[in-house]
Amino acid sequence: MLIAVDAMGGDHAPKAPCLAAINALKKRKDLEIALFGDENLLAPFLAKAKASIRKRIHVFNTTEVITANDSSSLAIRRKKDSSLVRAFYMVKSGEAQGLVSAGSTGAIAAGAVLLLGRIEGIDRPAMGIVLPLGAKQTLLMDVGASVRCKPVHLFQFAQMGSIYMSVLKNIKQPTVRFLANGEEATKGDETIGCARQMILDAGNLNYAGFAEGTDIVSGAADVIICDGLMGNAILKFGEGIGELLKKELKKEFTYHLLTKIGTLFLYPTLRRILRQFNWEKFGGLPILGVNGVVVKAHGRSSDKAIMNGILQAACLIEKDTISQIKSEIETTKRLLELNRKKAEEQPPC
Amino acid sequence: MLIAVDAMGGDHAPKAPCLAAINALKKRKDLEIALFGDENLLAPFLAKAKASIRKRIHVFNTTEVITANDSSSLAIRRKKDSSLVRAFYMVKSGEAQGLVSAGSTGAIAAGAVLLLGRIEGIDRPAMGIVLPLGAKQTLLMDVGASVRCKPVHLFQFAQMGSIYMSVLKNIKQPTVRFLANGEEATKGDETIGCARQMILDAGNLNYAGFAEGTDIVSGAADVIICDGLMGNAILKFGEGIGELLKKELKKEFTYHLLTKIGTLFLYPTLRRILRQFNWEKFGGLPILGVNGVVVKAHGRSSDKAIMNGILQAACLIEKDTISQIKSEIETTKRLLELNRKKAEEQPPC
Question: Is the pTM here over 0.90, yes or no?
Answer without folding.
Answer: no
